[in-house]
Specification:
It is built from ten helices and 18 strands. It is an alpha+beta fold and 373 residues long. It folds into two domains: 143 residues, Roll (2,3-Dihydroxybiphenyl 1,2-Dioxygenase, domain 1); 200 residues, Roll (2,3-Dihydroxybiphenyl 1,2-Dioxygenase, domain 1). 45% of the residues are buried.
Length: 373
């Protein structure tokens, strides 16, 4: 049974305001950028590569309201990203935090047994100084601390404004990153809960067990960690024993280890957002019509048109604080690993527990098509 607490029981060792960006490693950033522009409605923001004096990689920064995605492709076979991609395929490498003092945040984490990903690095140009430092987390994922208070440039030294030809898309109106979900090996979830409590001072405010998230074939467990200000939320999943392979086990197999499973993007008008994304060609999981037969009795009255909700395949759940609306994309790459969640919150700070059954069954339909159930 899910356990949810809104009390803050953590310790804020250093200020954590929000996420700075998510960096993806990808085999061909130029093509991936086109997909995220035309499908998800991101706009060009900044670029670094050989043309700007960076010769071992290219990085494109895309923006949508308060969401920043960085897509990086290595240009040399001996670049670390080349080996990362060989193992994991395209995916999330870095979940970065804004920091008032990157060195302090880094050293603070190391003092509580975090492992360094890279030491504090200062770079600069005529527009000021920029500081970064990074620590390791689950799998080959890292967290960077980014200090930009003394830098006035477009993004960071070595970057210029990204100017690209216009493309046509329906604007989905995505606002910010609501939460980022990691998958870890069976038996490791509590270790990573302890890590975020000890290293960041986060608190565990939701616990889901195999009775909350299961079908007759498979199940998973999850713990949701959060920062004091609720701006950073990190659910951590592990597989639980079942009759067949769970979605978490499939992810771990194809990703060849732990990593980011999905990124939840917040909207304030999910009907507009899903309509736009579907028009742009984004593929979402199938929700059976039977789900909507019991929806009014389960969630009560909502402000949105139920017919539009059903036509778009949107899921709805309610808790004691309000309700939420959500929908999950299919994997956005050939490996069935990374996908996206679109979420609108109407008071609820939960994660859609009432939708887990329908969600899991939809995922298992896709697993069966791939022969991995």
């Amino acid at each position: 049974m899910a356990i949810i607490t809104t009390d803050w029981t953590g310790t804020e060792y250093f200020p954590i305001t929000d996420l700075a960006y998510v960096e993806f490693y990808t085999g061909n950033a130029k093509q991936v950028v086109h997909f995220y522009r035309t499908a998800f409605g991101f706009t060009p923001y900044a670029y670094a590569g050989p043309e700007t004096g960076v010769f071992d990689k290219v990085s494109y920064v895309l923006k949508q309201n308060k969401i920043y995605f960085v897509f990086t492709t290595p240009l040399k076979s001996d670049h670390y990203a080349s080996q990362w991609l060989k193992k994991h395929g395209d995916g999330v490498r870095d979940i970065a935090f804004h920091s008032e003092d990157a060195v302090f945040a880094y050293e603070s984490c190391l003092s509580r047994d975090a492992e360094s990903a890279y030491e504090p690095t200062r770079s600069g140009d005529d527009l000021g100084n920029y500081m970064k430092a990074g620590i390791k987390t689950y799998g080959d994922t890292i967290h960077s601390f980014v200090e930009t208070k003394n830098y006035k440039g477009i993004w960071a030294p070595g970057f210029v404004e990204l100017d690209m030809p216009e493309v046509n898309f329906d604007d989905p109106g995505l606002l910010l990153i609501d939460h980022i979900v990691g998958n870890v090996e069976e038996g490791k979830m509590n270790e990573w809960r302890d890590y975020y409590e000890r290293v960041f001072g986060f608190t565990n405010f939701v616990v889901f067990d195999e009775n909350d998230i299961s079908t007759k074939y498979s199940s998973l467990k999850s713990r949701v960690m959060r920062s004091k200000n609720w701006k950073v939320k990190f659910p951590i999943n592990e597989p639980a024993s079942g009759l067949k392979k769970s979605q978490i086990e499939e992810y771990l197999d194809f990703n060849e280890g732990p990593g980011v499973q999905h990124i939840a993007l917040l909207t304030d008008d999910i009907i507009k957002t899903i309509t736009a994304l579907r028009n742009n060609g984004v593929e979402f999981l199938f929700v059976p019509d039977s789900y909507y037969g019991e929806l009014p009795s389960r969630v009560g009255q909502i402000q949105e048109d139920l017919n539009k909700i059903q036509d778009l395949g949107i899921l709805v759940d309610r808790d004691e604080e309000g309700y939420l609306l959500q929908l999950f994309s299919k994997p956005v790459e050939d490996r069935p690993t990374l996908f996206f969640e679109i979420i609108q919150r109407k008071g609820s700070r939960g994660f859609g527990q009432g939708n887990f059954q329908a969600l899991f069954e939809s995922i298992e339909i896709e697993q069966e098509k791939r022969g991995n159930l």
